Amino acid sequence: MGLFKRLQSVLRRLPGTASHWRVAVALLLLCVLIGMFGDAGRELLRYDRLAIADGEYWRLVSGHFAHLGATHLLLNMAGLVLVWLLVGRYYSSLQWLLVLVVTLAVISGGFWFIDRHMLWYVGLSGVLHGLLLAGAIRGFTVLPPESAVIVALVAGKLVYEQLAGPLPGSESVSGGSVVVNAHLYGAIGGIIAAGILWRSSGATRSI
């Protein structure tokens, strides 16, 4: 059985009232599991530029699922649930997996090739921006006004962060520095993923 089919089989066994929730549940469980290992888990799994340069390539992915502490974890888990409530219904589980993979790749690529000064990073917030934006873009075919509001809010937040830095209070609440470029890269990844899925669905309809 190929890796893709194995992932599909695992997702089908996860609980959830609707199939699109399976990816959200899987992400939530993964983040909570890593959080249970505390500081040791974070040190082992965080995005760490020097460790990656030494061959610990898993950190390019795992760093997005590790967190600074319980508060940081709870904030991102609440954000994950909110994203799924808003846009989760617009993609299937497998489509959400594609969005996730593309978003992770763009964020980690941005860190590695652009933000060379950044030595380490943890957190799901960049991924959440990508998931939300990808879902909102797809939502234009179903609920254009709601999707337009979401896209406008995300765009406004990104512009503010690039010009003025993190939103007021966000660093004190999360318990550490906010890497605003993670949000920007995540949003770009979400847009790219939405474009891939849009082209794919268009090609399918044309056959």
Mean of residue pLDDT? 91
The number of helical elements comes to 11
Q: Major sheet, described briefly?
A: 2 strands, antiparallel
Rg computed from alpha carbons, rounded to a whole number of angstroms: 17 Å
Distance between the termini: 28 Å
**Fraction of residues in β-strands:** under 5%
The CATH superfamily is Rhomboid-like
Kindly give the count of domains: 1
The H-and-E topology, N to C, reads as HHHEHHHHEHHHH
Q: Got a strand count?
A: 2
Q: What overall form do the CA principal axes indicate? A: globular
CATH class designation: Mainly Alpha
Question: Do you know the CATH topology?
Answer: Rhomboid-like fold
Output the structural class: mainly alpha
* Strands in their spatial order, largest beta sheet: 1-2
User: Under the CATH scheme, which architecture would be assigned?
Assistant: Up-down Bundle
Describe the structure.
The protein is globular, with a radius of gyration of 17 Å. It starts with a helix and ends with a helix. It has helices at 3-13, 21-35, 38-45, 49-53, 59-62, 70-87, 93-113, 125-139, 144-164, 170-174, 180-206, and strands at residues 47-48, 120-121. 37% of the residues are buried. The longest helix has 27 residues, at 180-206. It has 207 residues and is mainly alpha-helical. A two-stranded antiparallel ribbon has the order 1-2. The model is unreliable at 203-207 (pLDDT under 50). Helices cover 72% and strands 2% of the residues. α6 (70-87) packs parallel to α8. It contains eleven helices and two strands. It has a single domain (19-206), classed as Rhomboid-like (Rhomboid-like fold).
